[in-house]
Design goal:
alpha+beta; 2 helices
Length: about 140
Protein backbone atom coordinates (compact mmCIF):
# COMPACT_ATOMS: atom_id res chain seq x y z
CA UNK A 1 0.00 0.00 0.00
CA UNK A 2 1.46 3.37 -0.95
CA UNK A 3 2.48 5.78 1.81
CA UNK A 4 -0.07 8.28 0.50
CA UNK A 5 -2.97 5.88 1.16
CA UNK A 6 -1.70 5.10 4.68
CA UNK A 7 -1.44 8.80 5.49
CA UNK A 8 -4.99 9.36 4.16
CA UNK A 9 -6.35 6.50 6.29
CA UNK A 10 -4.59 7.84 9.41
CA UNK A 11 -5.94 11.34 8.72
CA UNK A 12 -9.50 10.03 8.35
CA UNK A 13 -9.11 7.97 11.52
CA UNK A 14 -7.85 11.02 13.46
CA UNK A 15 -10.74 13.14 12.17
CA UNK A 16 -13.18 10.40 13.22
CA UNK A 17 -11.73 10.29 16.75
CA UNK A 18 -11.88 14.09 17.03
CA UNK A 19 -15.51 14.05 15.86
CA UNK A 20 -16.50 11.42 18.44
CA UNK A 21 -14.87 13.35 21.31
CA UNK A 22 -16.07 16.81 20.27
CA UNK A 23 -19.57 16.27 18.91
CA UNK A 24 -21.02 13.21 20.64
CA UNK A 25 -21.75 12.33 24.25
CA UNK A 26 -20.21 8.85 24.10
CA UNK A 27 -17.61 9.65 26.77
CA UNK A 28 -19.65 12.12 28.83
CA UNK A 29 -20.82 11.29 32.31
CA UNK A 30 -24.52 10.61 32.56
CA UNK A 31 -25.14 11.82 36.12
CA UNK A 32 -23.72 13.59 39.14
CA UNK A 33 -22.72 11.20 41.94
CA UNK A 34 -23.68 12.50 45.41
CA UNK A 35 -22.77 11.22 48.88
CA UNK A 36 -24.69 12.68 51.82
CA UNK A 37 -23.54 12.65 55.43
CA UNK A 38 -24.38 14.28 58.74
CA UNK A 39 -21.45 16.00 60.43
CA UNK A 40 -21.74 16.31 64.22
CA UNK A 41 -19.95 19.67 64.22
CA UNK A 42 -18.64 21.96 61.46
CA UNK A 43 -16.75 25.21 61.98
CA UNK A 44 -15.46 27.06 65.01
CA UNK A 45 -16.75 29.68 67.43
CA UNK A 46 -19.88 31.53 66.34
CA UNK A 47 -19.80 29.84 62.93
CA UNK A 48 -20.23 26.33 64.37
CA UNK A 49 -23.04 24.22 62.92
CA UNK A 50 -24.35 21.20 64.82
CA UNK A 51 -25.50 18.12 62.87
CA UNK A 52 -24.90 19.75 59.49
CA UNK A 53 -25.98 17.73 56.45
CA UNK A 54 -23.25 17.78 53.81
CA UNK A 55 -23.23 16.56 50.23
CA UNK A 56 -19.98 15.52 48.55
CA UNK A 57 -19.97 15.45 44.75
CA UNK A 58 -17.73 13.23 42.61
CA UNK A 59 -16.31 16.26 40.78
CA UNK A 60 -16.50 20.06 40.79
CA UNK A 61 -19.66 21.23 39.02
CA UNK A 62 -21.07 24.60 38.01
CA UNK A 63 -24.54 23.96 39.39
CA UNK A 64 -27.57 25.49 37.67
CA UNK A 65 -30.24 24.19 40.05
CA UNK A 66 -30.39 22.75 43.57
CA UNK A 67 -33.62 21.54 45.21
CA UNK A 68 -34.41 19.75 48.44
CA UNK A 69 -37.87 18.17 48.69
CA UNK A 70 -39.52 15.84 51.22
CA UNK A 71 -39.31 12.34 49.74
CA UNK A 72 -42.99 11.59 50.49
CA UNK A 73 -44.07 14.68 48.58
CA UNK A 74 -41.53 14.03 45.79
CA UNK A 75 -43.06 10.59 45.16
CA UNK A 76 -46.72 11.62 45.30
CA UNK A 77 -46.95 15.20 44.06
CA UNK A 78 -46.40 16.31 40.46
CA UNK A 79 -45.27 19.77 41.66
CA UNK A 80 -43.70 19.19 45.10
CA UNK A 81 -42.83 22.07 47.42
CA UNK A 82 -39.07 22.64 47.63
CA UNK A 83 -37.86 23.42 51.14
CA UNK A 84 -34.61 24.76 49.66
CA UNK A 85 -34.29 25.85 46.03
CA UNK A 86 -31.31 27.65 44.53
CA UNK A 87 -30.77 28.60 40.90
CA UNK A 88 -27.95 30.12 38.89
CA UNK A 89 -28.76 32.61 36.17
CA UNK A 90 -25.21 32.83 34.88
CA UNK A 91 -22.22 30.90 36.22
CA UNK A 92 -22.05 29.43 39.68
CA UNK A 93 -18.68 28.75 41.24
CA UNK A 94 -17.57 25.16 40.59
CA UNK A 95 -18.09 23.16 43.78
CA UNK A 96 -17.84 19.59 45.02
CA UNK A 97 -19.26 20.22 48.52
CA UNK A 98 -22.67 21.51 49.58
CA UNK A 99 -23.79 22.14 53.15
CA UNK A 100 -27.55 22.28 53.67
CA UNK A 101 -28.72 25.85 54.16
CA UNK A 102 -25.49 27.53 53.03
CA UNK A 103 -25.84 29.06 49.55
CA UNK A 104 -23.46 27.97 46.81
CA UNK A 105 -21.43 30.90 45.45
CA UNK A 106 -23.07 32.24 42.30
CA UNK A 107 -26.50 30.80 43.14
CA UNK A 108 -29.50 32.50 44.69
CA UNK A 109 -32.91 31.43 46.00
CA UNK A 110 -35.47 30.89 43.25
CA UNK A 111 -37.82 33.17 45.20
CA UNK A 112 -35.92 36.20 46.47
CA UNK A 113 -35.11 36.35 50.20
CA UNK A 114 -36.61 32.90 50.92
CA UNK A 115 -34.49 30.99 53.43
CA UNK A 116 -34.23 27.18 53.56
CA UNK A 117 -36.71 25.49 55.86
CA UNK A 118 -35.25 23.53 58.79
CA UNK A 119 -34.82 19.79 58.28
CA UNK A 120 -36.92 17.56 60.49
CA UNK A 121 -35.32 14.54 62.18
CA UNK A 122 -36.14 11.10 60.76
CA UNK A 123 -37.84 12.60 57.67
CA UNK A 124 -36.49 11.48 54.30
CA UNK A 125 -35.58 14.18 51.80
CA UNK A 126 -34.45 14.19 48.17
CA UNK A 127 -31.66 16.44 46.89
CA UNK A 128 -31.93 17.20 43.16
CA UNK A 129 -28.96 18.79 41.40
CA UNK A 130 -28.49 20.05 37.85
CA UNK A 131 -25.30 21.23 36.18
CA UNK A 132 -26.22 22.01 32.60
CA UNK A 133 -27.32 18.70 31.05
CA UNK A 134 -26.03 16.62 33.97
CA UNK A 135 -28.40 15.72 36.79
CA UNK A 136 -28.06 13.92 40.08
CA UNK A 137 -30.20 13.01 43.05
CA UNK A 138 -29.87 11.38 46.43
CA UNK A 139 -32.12 10.62 49.37
CA UNK A 140 -31.03 11.54 52.90
CA UNK A 141 -32.23 12.07 56.47
CA UNK A 142 -31.30 14.65 59.11
CA UNK A 143 -30.61 13.65 62.73
Amino acid sequence: MPKRNIALILLLLALGVIYVFKFTSVFEKSSIQIISSVRPKIGRGKKTMENAVTFSLDNKYELTSLKVIEEREFKTNKYPHAIWHLISESNSEPTNLIIYGIPVNGMKPEVAKVKPEPLQPKVSYVLLLEAGKLKGQTTFQAH
